[in-house]
């Protein structure tokens, strides 16, 4: 990957981790530059994700920073290699925003994705008709088809890596705000039922008669990245894109919120019954 195409989500993650390790070792940028026999700007570019790093240089820095855990070293070396990985969405052109590309990278690199949705259904569990209704209203006309194709392609994750797991909590209002004709709504509920039967998918419905702090009702996703030791990050959705949170206190706050949400939500079995009842209601029976 040319340096001009950086930073990417992976290069930023690697750079942030190397910066953290250097700081915890009590070393300055100049110390790393001396170890690699290079200028300080190169170290700064690596730590900001603006350039990659050779495996030999990475090994030198890990030794300098006192990283002895073999799993951690292997994980960082894999991430350094993956910076140059060409993903299936790489050739989608400018119609896919940088935020969406970042999200796709996080999703593809995760072993576990936990998502809370208060207003819409999770993207991986949407039918094509449902997502088309959403994109037609909320996106420019020339972006609808690329966005639909991209979201449909994401579904390969559910049938792909054996270690990929998806857990979602859906707030009840999202199940009553499905746009389109009754047939579309019924098909979307049936798809939720089918998806919930997959061994790597867990669906829980958050009922209306629960009391939780209002701050927990913003949509967010927790990603547990592959590798040892596992790394967790939080992604917040907003009207103009998304924001990545990597600092441990921030991520722990959302992880605690997730525990509260799953404890308050209906069990997976109860959630299936709730969705089944919604199918009956939309079928007029």
From TrEMBL:
Residues 18-72 form the HTH cro/C1-type domain. Transmembrane segments: none annotated. Pfam families: DUF5753, HTH_31. CDD domains: HTH_XRE (cd00093). This is Helix-turn-helix domain-containing protein.
